[in-house]
UniProtKB/TrEMBL annotation:
Leader sequence segment: none
InterPro entries named in the record: GntR_C (IPR011711), TF_FadR/GntR_C (IPR008920), Tscrpt_reg_HTH_GntR (IPR000524), WH-like_DNA-bd_sf (IPR036388), WH_DNA-bd_sf (IPR036390)
The UniProt record lists the keyword Transcription regulation: yes
PROSITE patterns in the record: HTH_GNTR
Source organism superkingdom: Bacteria
Organism, as annotated: Streptomyces purpurascens
Occurrences of domain HTH gntR-type (ranges): 13-80
Protein name per UniProt: GntR family transcriptional regulator
Length: 222
């Protein structure tokens, strides 16, 4: 009996994680836009699973900030509010400033080369959703290169919400987006490679501000 108790929960947890991965992927791919309803019955039918794992998966995504569950409205993909934008921007900025300082003082030349490779891939992308993925992947690499595990964990706590924020940005407009993002990241790599702290901090801040301005309507997306 004790063996069964050990095995069964692990199986259910694995299934709900798989369901969460598939729903998360659908959100990041644009299948479900911010504000879209996610119905347990429909999701369970599409994925050929019972409603239990779907319900657990939605709870996981709610903890990540990707969905919002309310008894009177059901579950919807999170719509990023002005308050969300302000909080994400300030927290991301604080984390990223520390990451930049860490990379400049501690990262190896091989780490910087990996960042350059991540930025180079962006030049060949023609899909906005894929560009968002690569943008997030680049910043994942920055936090990894910082060599600060707790800092990386803090970034991991908000990265899905940042991803959703960037999806909001491209949903508003993609004019100029596929061209400017690779250029911005090339500039970030150049500053990190030169170990120029102030320039790097300024460029990372400008990179964040550009997206915030587009979402808040304070700038031309170009």
């Amino acid at each position: 009996m004790s063996d069964q108790r050990k095995v069964s929960p692990a199986r259910r947890r694995g299934l709900s994680d798989e369901v969460a991965d598939r729903i998360r992927e659908a959100i990041f791919s644009g299948v479900y836009a911010p504000g879209a309803q996610l119905r347990e019955v429909e999701l369970s039918a599409m994925m050929d699973v019972s409603r239990g794992p779907v319900r657990e998966a939605l709870r996981v995504l709610e903890r990540e900030g990707l969905v919002h569950c309310a008894w009177h409205r059901g579950t919807t993909v999170t719509t990023v509010s002005p308050e969300d934008v302000a909080e994400l921007d300030s927290l991301r900025g604080a984390l990223e400033d520390l990451a930049v300082r860490q990379v400049i003082t501690r990262a190896s030349d091989e780490d910087i080369a990996s960042l350059a490779k991540a930025a180079e891939v962006m030049k060949h992308v023609s899909d906005a959703h894929e560009m968002v993925r690569l943008d997030i992947a680049f910043h994942d690499a920055v936090f990894a290169a910082a060599g600060h595990q707790r800092l990386a964990d803090a970034w991991d706590g908000i990265r899905c919400q940042v991803h959703l924020f960037l999806l909001t940005r491209i949903n508003l407009s993609t004019d100029g987006y596929l061209g400017c993002i690779p250029r911005e990241h090339q500039g970030l790599v150049t500053a990190l490679r030169s170990r120029d702290t102030e320039t790097a901090l300024g460029l990372f801040a400008a990179h964040r501000r550009h997206a915030v301005d587009v979402v808040t309507g304070n700038a031309d997306p170009n």
